[in-house]
Amino acid sequence: MARGRKKALTLEEQLANTISQIEEAEERLEELKEKKDELEGQLKMNRIAELDDLITSHGLSIEEVKEILEKN
Question: Taking phi first (over 0 means left), then psi (-120 to 50 degrees means alpha), and beta for anything else, what does residue 8 get?
Fold first, then answer.
């Protein structure tokens, strides 16, 4: 089966395609930045939960931990 030749795009069509690709890439970048922020927030909450568990397991209050840290 013979294939037809690809139609050469005009400069205007090439420009329009390029602009469209840039817009799609920018949208994807925004989505990725939002996902990054969400994941960083989840990691921070996990770290805070770990600290809370550690503090509780040692029978300390937040104020006591603050005092200990401020002394160092």
Answer: beta
Between the alpha carbon of residue 45 and those of residues 18, 28, 41, 52, 64, the distances in Å are 41, 26, 6, 10, 21
* Residue in this structure with the two tokens 């550690």, named with its chain if needed: 54
Token pair listed for 5: 């030749």
Instruction: Note the pLDDT tens digit of each residue in 30-39.
Output: 999 999 999 9
Beta strands in the chain (DSSP E): none
d(CA 24, CA 18): 10
Residue partners of 9: CB distance under 8 A and separation at least 6: 17
- Entry pTM: 0.70
